[in-house]
Amino acid sequence: MAQTPFLLSARSIVKSFGPTQVLRGFDLSIARGEVHAFLGGNGAGKSTLIKIISGQHERDGGTLEFDGEALGATVAAHVEAGAIAVVNQELALLPHLSVAENIAMPRLRRATQKYSERAAQALAVDALSLIDPHFARESASRLVGDLTLHERQLVEIARSLGSGARLLLLDEPTANLTAAETARLFAVIRRLIAETGLAVLFVSHRMREIRQIADVCTIIRDGKTAVDRVALDAITDREIVECMGQSVESDGQTGAAAKTIRTRAATGASAGGAQRDEITFAQADLRVTLRPGSILGLAGAPTGPSALINALTGLAAESAWDVERDGAPLRFANPGAAARGGVGFISGDRANKGILETLPIVDNLMAAQRVVERRSVARRAEVEQGARLLEALNMRVGSQWDLPSTLSGGTQQKLLVARWLTLKPKLLVLEEPTRGVDIRTKREIYALIREMAAQGCAVVWWSTEYVELVELCDTVLAFDLDGRPTGVLTHADVNETNLANATGMAA
């Protein structure tokens, strides 16, 4: 059989979920030995197409060809045989199994194959060492359920990189990686392409990363092909954003309103005069004060920020941090107690720390309020309140009684923010809250958080995107690679260069 120009060709792909048409005749072609950036806004259909290519969804129409072979029901067979590997945006690991078992199990293709713990351990260490040798040595025997989101992301990527696949589908693979880990991942991808002719479909909202690794791009908009196989050096960032159907203008929040918030935070002034709800956290010789209306950024590898976040939100039984509110110790037995104490929490790990997958949208919207009020029974008024929230946040849903799986990742993230808007927490803690969301949704989330700060909420925001911290934060608490706090950067000192120097991580 003559070799076809493309390893994968998707033509006129159509897919609907109930009355919602997600893909409307979409085309995509991926060549051997290339990194192909797959771009589009949240809800445009990127993840749906990836799940069709990887056999997780059946298409309603259109054709798929892999290496010249028409794919019908054989899509799943190629995945099972290891020719196609995928890293989904929502990770697909088994939490009750070890890291080694999660990496090795997909290799057992026959029912008669025996599992070898020694072989699995060696395989896991080899695969993880491609990205993080230190993590590889100390994590192979750990349960996946005990890992952080950042660590689970490494396991998922390593499992796919070590699979020997000819086509690698990466849906937001760097959303929880440090800059150094991302650089190592890209180096591995380039080596595999040079050695094996691997083809990679790469989804990301980070334009800097896209230009570092990808050769060409295809843009999807409203389920249709907006741009088909254009070289990245032939299209600007502005043109990409416009083709995605998103505004490239400022969200209007970086002017007077943001400056007012910053000024109030710096001076400690508040509408009520005397300062109340002042939160302080201290460790060793470092003491940080967070006043109402201020936004404190956390920068650095996950270990340090996660420890502080756990102390603030009731996730840590013991902590090296001493936390006080208005001079009194502040410690919660669990996240529910923290919520009742005026502390809200939003994570970018929607699947494990946010979305209630089996409950409808209205229950997800009201989840925090029910925890605070110690209720589990829905009230009629909640449906009306939910409708007002959805309208105010411009969240397009079919019905409040639909499951959140019908929403795009970005809309799900806005849903998590919406939970706290009516509760008006005194402290809102955010853990990578814009993970895997597009430019427009990021700006909408920024605006919501700024508005909450303007109303007197103190905000703690951890992000591995330094540009995000520079734009949003009054001050930034930096941590080194071992999780130790290195100091606080204030106002004019908050820039990408200084953050990189303070954390030991590239911007």
From TrEMBL:
Record SUPFAM superfamilies: P-loop containing nucleoside triphosphate hydrolases
PROSITE patterns per UniProt: ABC_TRANSPORTER_2
GO molecular function, one term: ATP binding
Any Pfam family the entry gives: ABC_tran
Record key words, sorted: ATP-binding, Cell inner membrane, Cell membrane, Membrane, Nucleotide-binding, Repeat, Sugar transport, Transport
CDD domains: ABC_Carb_Monos_I, ABC_Carb_Monos_II
Domain ABC transporter: start-end pairs: 8-247, 261-506
Name under which the protein is recorded: ABC transporter ATP-binding protein
Species: Paraburkholderia monticola
Classification of source organism: Bacteria, Pseudomonadati, Pseudomonadota, Betaproteobacteria, Burkholderiales
